[in-house]
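Open question from group meeting: does this chain pack into something compact, or does most of it stay loose? Before anyone orders reagents, we agreed to write out a predicted structure and look at it together. Recording both the input and the output here so the notebook holds the full record.
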Amino acid sequence: MATAMEFEQEKERLGAPEPRVISSVFDPSSIAASTVVSRTPTIDDNYDGIRQSQYSEDHKGDPAGEHHVDIEGAKREFAKLDRALTQNSLKDAKRDLEKDDEDERFDLREYFQNSHDASDAQGVRHKHVGVVWDDLSVEVPDIGSKFFVRSLPHAIFDTLSYPIFYPLGLLQSKFGKGWPTRPILRNFNGVLKPGEICLVLGVPGSGCSTFLKVIANQRGAYAKVTGDVKYAGIDSDEMAKKYSGEVVYNQEDDIHIPTLTVEQTLEFALATKTPSKRTRLPGITGEAFNEEVLNMLLKMLNITHTKKTLVGNEFVRGVSGGERKRVSILEMMATRAHVVSYDNSTRGLDASTALDFVKGLRVTTDILGQTTFVSLYQAGENIYNLVDKVLVIDQGRTVYFGPAKEARSYFVNLGFKDMPRQATADYLTACTDANERQPQPGANPPNTPEELETAFRNSKYYQAMVDDREEYRMRIAKEDNREQEDFRTAVLEAKKSNVSRTNPYTLSFLAQVWILTRRQFFLQFQDKFHIYTSFGIAIGIAIVLGATFYNLPDTTSGGFTKGSVMFNAMIMTCLDAFGEMPTQMVGRPIFLKQTGYKLFRPGALSLANTLADLPFSAIRVLLFNIIVYFMTGLRRNAGGFFTFHILIYVAFLAMQGFFRTIGIICPNFDSAFRIASLIVPNMISYAGYIIPVDSMRRYIFWIYYINPLSYSFGGLMENEFGKLDMLCDGNYITPRNAPGQSAYPEGLGPNQVCTYFGAQPAQPVVHGRDYISVGYGLDLADLWKQNFVVLIVLFIFFQLTQYVAMENVHFGGMGGIQIFVKEDKETKALNDRLKERAAQGKEKVEKEREFQRGKTLTWKDVNYVVPVPGGTRRLLHDVTGYVKSGQLVALMGASGAGKTTALDVLAQRKNIGVITGEVLLEGRPLSTSFARETAYAEQMDVHEPTTTVREAMRFSAYLRQPYDVSKEDKDEYVESIIELLELQELSEAMVLTLGVEARKRLTIGVELASRPKALLFLDEPTSGLDAQSAFNLVRFLRKLAAAGQSIICTIHQPSALLFENFDRLLLLESGGETVYFGDIGPDSQILRDYLARNGARCPDDQNPAEFMLEAIGAGSQPRIGPRDWKDIWQESPEFAQMKREIEDLKAEGVARSTEDTTKPTTYATPIYYQLQVVVKRALLSLWRSPDYTWTRLFVHVFLSLFVSLTFLNLGTSLRDLQFRVFAIFWVSILPAIVVNQIIPAFIINRMIYIREASSGMYSPAVFAVGQLLAETPWSFVCAILYWVLMYFPMDLGQGSSGKGGSGYFLLMILAVELFGVSMAQAVAALLPSIKVAVLTNMPITLILTTFAGVTIPYPNLAKFWKSWLYELSPFTRVVAGLVVTELQGLNITCREDEFAVFDPPSGQTCETWANTFVSTFGGYVQNPNATSDCQYCQFKVGNEFFNGLNMRYENRWRDLGIVYAFFGFNIIVTIVASKYLRYAKR
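Structure tokens returned:
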């Protein structure tokens, strides 16, 4: 590093100005609010920042005391940033001094001064937005006391009544009174000026999140918001319309695209908010600006090491939970908003990182003039001291709003007992909790929210707030709204020049599309497995299709088959876009969050999706078309091929837009699937191939004219046959010779006729244009002027529908509504008892005595190495320690230090990477029963969403407690856990609708319900809980430990009181290094002594849990002392003592374990009991998922109705014979439709099973069979509905089997249903994700149906396919069994237009001339005695049709049995795959 003198000389040489005082107002337009770097170091005396906003009158004369934040440190941080950037520009200038490149030279100090001068001289303004709220109230719909879960009848009624009630609802909302409402926030008043932080406190459910959302102008989830909220004098409506990107809300849950890296996630947010050149640092490009800001953001919260790591989620391995929370924080900071609301944003962060985050908020709020609202659970004193004001909420009422430093004394003066050791934030929250607050002796403080609100309104603090608010309003008015005008001007100048003044976005629409396209492209490109799978399937299917129709001849024998090739190629390509529907819904929460931040217009994503997909889909479809086109022998010239390719690809793009539109406008996949199931079968049937236009029913033939597939197929046929002449041969000559006969001329003679469409009398050549004109009603002239044009129009139309839908249709979730299951007699009695105990204030039932003595777990020199791109990474290094019976061990460290990893390794939950070292239970290696003998409350709350809280706990108790424990005892134990965790009011609530805090308590309850024999592991059990709930939980864990249980628990942000409840501490630093393992001691004295002995003395007034993390350098601050604490630990006497204790514990454990003669078992209960419990839950889940079950029924009902309407009341003509076969063929399509529903459901349930299986709940065979058995009743119902609505309206059963054949039809349709469900589950079990699994549906369906003997008749199949694929397809048996049952003995009567007409030779009758032909090929002559115009009908009886297709009536029961055998095979595959292929990398 250059010396100070060299530095100044270099700057002088470059003409840099002398250092001057930086402006007292940091220009937010110049750099993102999120670029403040929380780092320490050297002092720059020339730096002079601001302490607080120029509007914060309360802070005069106290530059640091009120917040206890090192403002001088903040100055030094900016000084360091200043020097770093300046030195970088100096280096760049040295490299290119001759060019004097202004773009490269950047001096932060100079820029700050210049921007300040410009502010005064040229009117460049700054964004300072004070918020004033007056009588703010929020109301939500009050539809009864509870929302109850819908069931199937509700779903059916909702669907059928929708056309009636939806318009009525619109009229009601416009002209009526609307739903009754109830208030959840009442008459809030206050003001927060720029440069101030307001901490929002309250118990869960008090209204903190609602206040933060509404103050951030997010009002969509509420029925009514009244009162007045102004932002720098701008009302909420104008703010929402023009400046909504300046007021943002950071939600509690971390929602991100899991397969993007941290860098890509933040780069995207920055790129959409890059300010214009007018307000950027002079001479720096937008890319360089974003890169510099990105690096500073990562350093600010100390996650630079995660830059190239996937963000991940519950099921995709990525950064840790704490690191993911920091990504959420930084993403919002990147929006450069100036009114910010953070909702419990420190959940999952360790104490040091949480403090760093709030320090960062303090600095950005001060220097940038932000207005910051934040709610935090378990906020420590150091964090509390950083805020200006505090808002305390009790059941939707303001009970205090004023200076943070005076809040505690206010509540003490009200008469509440002070708790000196309790953190102030915890104390304030406890004062609103009737169960926790304590009055002072002889005092009578307010007891209800109403009384607390009244006391506050009568206090000096309320009057001070009113005065402060009026003073703020008057000052703004006196200054002629200068603050507002500055804000408007600053926002306008930050926008790109081509962005409208009223547009809330920073970039233009096209710029947004480009950035989104780039992100969506990388999102697809990084999913290599999906790319390889989709391309592999496309190429594989193309080869199969090409080989099946290999090298077709240019004669009439190949004419119809060429149509089949083109139809199949088109259907395969276009319906591949079906997977776009679920994709639109999976990304919806992320989409809503980012559009809420105003990163981009919703409609921009629709165009970006199309553009990003073009490179992948264009190449994939091109490869598919090349293989199919040239293998099958279609017209081999460049013009023909590229026309073929363009027609198919444009049709694909149109269908892709169609499916995406459905996915956008539908609230869930089930409703989208219902719409698709109505439309897609009609598109396929009315494309012009299966049913010719002139044979379509008049009441539905219009579908043909609005169908993209009909225009694509028409263009393909015109392209292929428009210039093709075909020789009439083969089966199209009547009469003709059979092999070995010579009764008729070879070729087409004068007394023979070519029956091919478009054939001319006595002409052996059929012109292709005549063929498509007569057979399909197509005109070659329509190829480009109609078909292609309409496809382009439809493509554009569906792009527009996507845009309009994304702009206007938003599904924002449940809005905090909880759904309950109605009580039965048993649960009502249980709930009444719980309520009675709560009302009487009885002590909670304590069941810790029922825990048997825990076991001792020791671990020594444990290392864990995982594979990463380019090598491996060590996450744990020589971790050593133990937990024994009666001990509660805390596992702590910074976020990302390896706490969860260490817990996973000790609990044996890892299935990737290499674990070395020694882990022993009672001195012996871990047995197969270890998983079920331990309980592990994981950080991610994964549960079956449709169960209730009580059911989830009972499920765990039934399967994990010993089988010999009675059901009554297990149920009683669950009741005690519900009471302990204070879940009485939510015992019948569906897990799906629980909030974050309630889900966390449920996760713990599910594990406690197992009554673990050995150990209890808990990963951050207090994250997301308020301070009192966290304290109650840890106090309960303390009691469990006192009763003999062994417990290891990771914990974040414990208060000093909470921390004392733990016996021992395992402290890790970055890299998984141990820095301490030992006792904590009363008042943490043992730990304090260890730290002090090694140079880190903890002040008496500081929380040792926070101090120890700061001491080891867990946050942004450097460690205390010159040596690494891991080295200090390894050389300490405590380390040597610990190793001796481990050896002693191992010896004692071995001695004890010899007394235990229990045989280790993987599961606590027998298989049949597991199956009973699992199936019961699965059946309940389906019943409580009415959209899912109704969709299955709906699809079968309307598909059968559609087939019936198309083929209503079939007769006995030749065409009706073909229609009967087509109608039967639709039965084989049922599995393809079922698969699209079953696969996502199975894979989602598998994710839950993986979590439950890791605890040894039940076997993979039980899971697989349970999933099938739960679906089976619905399969029976679907089969019966389809059979009734198909069989009887079409008037089937006119053959010799009669209506008695209907029973066989029902059995076969049921077999197809069961096969479809089991095949879907087998495919899902074999593949890793929904996205990949659904890709297999179309190819499997196409292969199985193509070789079933209908699309390609058995005689036309190549020998290769006949020998195996024809026999392997279950649909071969389905079609054969149903066709022979229906056509056996069916008399055929041709219509007039169905006869083949020919003249016999002179002197012969029709019978004489055609007798040899008829006796050989079947059929009949209508006028046997005629001497001209002989009328020949191809079939006389149905048997003649199927005999030549390798179908036999006597084999029909064998065929039925084979289909059921396929069903059994699928079950076996599902069981085996479920056991060995879990796809859960952990």
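Observations to bring back to the group:
The first helix runs from residue 4 to 13.
The radius of gyration is 38 Å.
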